[in-house]
Amino acid sequence: MNSTIEKGVGVEESTLPWVDIAVRPGYKQRYQGFYDTARKLGLRIGSLYADPYYLSPRHRHTFQQVRFLVKGKMRYGKEVYSVGDCLYIPEGAYYGPITPVAVKDGGTEQMHFVDIQFEGPSGIPYPHPDAVIDAQRALTKKGTFEEGIYTPESGRKRDAYEAILEELTGQPVKYPPSRLDTYVVMRSNSFPWMDIEGLNGVAQRQLGYYFECGPNIKMLSIKAGSQLPAVTPDGHRAMFLLSGKVRFDGAEYKPLSYFVVPDGVPCAAVEADEDSEFLAIGWTTPGRTVPLNFY
pLDDT: is 55 or 120 the higher one? Predict the structure, then answer.
């Protein structure tokens, strides 16, 4: 985890350990947390894999999320989503239940989605993943987690993550009022690629721009031999390499790599050795406006 970030950071997911905190059954995950308190940055970026299935009750959070399906299918309530579908889940908005999708052989769909979690427009800090794991372990000593629900030895059942937040803070969770009634689904494969003026070989899909402080959600495409130029962003940025191969700050990165740049921190150019695609998100702190254009 980072407390001060002086430049753009790249992380290859395959170098990270598997994490299973047993809050939601049937999945495994890899992720990296990024924190810079001086710049008011707190986020977690990574992948979630259904192994062998993923199950979660209807619930909500004090932070916002962007999810992008890269393999398989997933069911939210009655709706089933496929590869290329991008979900924006605002802070305070309910979503789920998330249940397995059956396949012909009698099993369930093997699923993999990108998951980016970060502070919402309310400014409620994003909880540190290490603290979340510690709280979950403490709760297992005085209750049980099953199918996304925490049941204490005495007291009421509640959502697993809600129980963890209450363990962290020592207080009942106060959810921010949601600016949207529910989550938003963007079918990225239906969006056109639009060339970015002044950047040869670079195009974007503008998936969505929400609220004054974001998130601004895009896909970026870079042709082999082209690049995203060095930049010092206005607002925070996070990118997830979906396909291709790139070079960044002297290192090579393959698919399932993350790139994070805090507000006002210099970021090196991203050079494509192969045709490459990213999921990219921009946002900023409450009271400010995130730019529509990244470059």
Answer: 120
